[in-house]
Specification:
Helix content: over 70%
Distance between the termini: 83 Å
Number of helices: 3
Order of helices and strands: HHH
Oligomer: single chain
Largest sheet: none
Strand content: under 5%
């Protein structure tokens, strides 16, 4: 092995050790795990509701859109 290759290998090994020992991104991993858990729970609720929850949410959003349209037309004077 040449001197430059040995030095490069030594630097690369030190870099990999620093990356593996660095725990600064650990919080992001925990948030991702919590988000995945919540998404799974929400999915299970939708599956167990046999479509009734989806219909209820659809109706609620339709009512919100209708109210926003009504308020927009009221504020514009039409």
């Amino acid at each position: 092995m040449t001197k430059d290759l040995r030095q490069f290998t030594k630097q690369l090994t030190a870099f990999v050790r620093r990356v593996l020992q660095d725990e600064s991104g650990q919080g992001i991993n925990e948030y991702a795990a919590i988000l995945a858990f919540l998404a799974t729970c929400i999915f299970l609720v939708f599956v167990m509701s046999n479509g009734t929850l989806g219909q209820a949410l659809s109706g609620a959003f339709s009512n919100m859109v209708n109210e926003m349209d009504r308020l927009t037309s009221y504020s514009s004077g039409t």
